[in-house]
Amino acid sequence: MILLQSHCRYLLQVLSTRVLNLEKGVELDCQWVEFDDVRYHIQATVKNPNILLLSLSLPTPPPETVFFGGLPQGAIEAIKAAYGVVLQILDPPKDGFNLTVKLNMSKLPPDEEHKQALLLKIASIREVVQGAPLRAVLKQLVSRGVKSDLNRLVSLVHRPNESFFVVPKADKVTVIFPMRFKDSVDTVLATSFLQEFVEARRTAGLTNAPPCLWSSSPPQELEGVSDEALSANAGFVSFVIFPRHVEGKKLDRTVWSLSTFHAYVSYHVKCSEGFMHTRMRRRVESLIEALDRAKPDSEKAKKNAQVRSFKRLSINDGRGSFNSR
């Protein structure tokens, strides 16, 4: 199966192109929307070609999710730790956005390899911002200790007005996703996909993967959560994360995979739906070809029809001519 990339490909393309054409000083103003309703806006002026303004708009949080200053908990600290002096947070952000940062292109490292690595990291700013609360919980799991303020049910936004839940413990972290889909066909396909997803975890080659469970009703860990937050027409998926799943470089991959799990499922559901439509079209085309081959030849059909034809006769008796049929 295809995993979603942590960096925004279009943002990386814009940044790379800007670095190559920095001397030209071209004005830049681009807006686009990524999956799960995450909106970007990047700007640059001719007067200051080295300065880029990047704004990020996150999905609207549901009532059970708390934002601090319009951002998830720990997002500001995560940005400062990830980018240092290269990115400067502007307060307040641009209207309609949760975050606006100023990127100084002159402070990029001269080494080409390090420069590309930093641009890739900047293009992954969504992962840094949106995954900050989950990263904080999983870091506590690595140290085998849970802070008192994290030893409770945590609600994290991942889609507009939708959240998933994290239950931190000293030896494990349980992540629970209420799966919701608007289209009835997507709901059926997603339910089947998730059930097969759980069964695949039991194969011999995936013994080190996090345990995965699916249920049609809310797990016990979500007791006390509002009914609106637990409305899920495709069931509930639970992952149990142990310290071995977040050690070293595994932490970033685990944070991103969990933060975008719903988008991952939606992507494969749409791919499955498109594949079935393609198969049905091919089947219809093969049936039409079979019917065309079964049609009789035109000459044979003309003989069987026995169509009569009449020739026009012209008679001349010296006084004139007349036609008869």
UniProtKB/TrEMBL annotation:
* Domain of life according to the entry: Eukaryota
Its GO CC terms are: Arp2/3 protein complex; cell projection
Q: From the UniProt record, which GO molecular function terms apply? A: actin filament binding; structural constituent of cytoskeleton
- Where located? Cell projection; Cytoplasm, Cytoskeleton
Supply the source organism for this entry.
Handroanthus impetiginosus
Q: What keywords appear on the UniProt entry? A: Actin-binding, Cell projection, Cytoplasm, Cytoskeleton
The major lineage groups are:
Eukaryota, Viridiplantae, Streptophyta, Embryophyta, Tracheophyta
Q: How does it assemble?
A: Component of the Arp2/3 complex.
Report the protein name in the record.
Arp2/3 complex 34 kDa subunit
Q: What does this protein do?
A: Functions as actin-binding component of the Arp2/3 complex which is involved in regulation of actin polymerization and together with an activating nucleation-promoting factor (NPF) mediates the formation of branched actin networks. Seems to contact the mother actin filament. Arp2/3 complex plays a critical role in the control of cell morphogenesis via the modulation of cell polarity development.
One GO BP annotation of this record: Arp2/3 complex-mediated actin nucleation
Matches recorded under PANTHER family: ACTIN-RELATED PROTEIN 2_3 COMPLEX SUBUNIT 2 (PTHR12058:SF0), ARP2/3 COMPLEX 34 KDA SUBUNIT (PTHR12058)
User: Which family does the entry's similarity section mention?
Assistant: Belongs to the ARPC2 family.
Which InterPro entries does the UniProt record give? ARPC2, ARPC2/4
